[in-house]
Write a structure and sequence with these properties.
Number of helices: 2
Order of helices and strands: EEHEH
Strand order of the largest sheet: 1-2-3
Shape: globular
Number of strands: 3
Helix content: 10-25%
Oligomer: single chain
Structural class: alpha+beta
Mean pLDDT: 79
């Protein structure tokens, strides 16, 4: 299961009467993971409102380029050796 890609969307009730909630997805990319295409595809399908990515390095930052227009606001560094967070 080490190389499997399985992402899940979680809906959070934000307490507003007419709200549909907020969806959150947190992913440990495992910086040595070579299945970027699958990860990006699943993230597009899930389309969470908030996306937390762990182990973002320069290579992953480039692989995630197709998602950057959807998630334009970013906080966190891109670091090597899998220490980055976005």
């Amino acid at each position: 299961m080490e190389n499997s890609v399985l992402l899940q969307r979680v809906e959070v009730d934000d307490g507003y009467v007419h709200s549909t909630g907020t969806s959150i997805c947190a992913v440990n990319l495992k910086f040595e993971n070579d299945r970027a295409r699958e990860v990006v595809e699943q993230l597009r399908e899930l389309d969470p409102d908030l996306l937390l990515l762990i182990e973002v390095n320069q290579a992953w930052d480039a692989r995630l380029e197709p998602l950057k227009s959807r998630y334009a606001h970013r906080v966190g560094p891109v670091l090597e050796e899998g220490l980055g967070v976005a």
